[in-house]
Amino acid sequence: MKRPKRLKLPSPAMIVALVALFAALGGTSYAALSVGSVTSREIKNGSIRNVDFKRGTLRGQEFKRDSLGGGAIKEESLDASKLGNVRTASRATEAERATLAAGLTRQLAVAADGARSNDRGGVVSVIKTATGRYQVLFDTDVRACAYSATLAITPPPADRRDAPVTGEIAASPLAGNVNGVEVATADSAGVAADRAFHLTVSC
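RESULT FIELD:
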């Protein structure tokens, strides 16, 4: 009866050689990644989520300017106490427009006899006190405002719409009334004369 053949165990030298061979063949699979070797091109869109980042590791400088929209920020994450006196853009814009409009709409046209027309922005009254002297009253203090007065033909006759207006005009704060403006008109020689004019008060 024949004895079964015994399998020979590989020698230690053979084992070491095989380990070295596997290490050489799979070396690239187990090599460590160097810093900066993975770029955005190697990352699939949507494969990295918030849970993949350690809390507090992303700072403002990590994001491209204007790359985050309102939908990327949780409303509950905003702390109003850290915003100080910052106003919303819409409210700031509305306030600035309202302030600008209030100043530019204080205007009116005054005829030579003192009758006013086309007034807006809180004009209370116009009083003709003497030849070439007019007092215009508003519903607010206008001492710190800028006055712009120009001579005019009010209303301009149909046959003289382009005719030049000659004469002199000056506007100044009305003494004794913080809400008033005094307008003085004169002819080309500087002699007081009734003249129609336009007045704008910008604050």
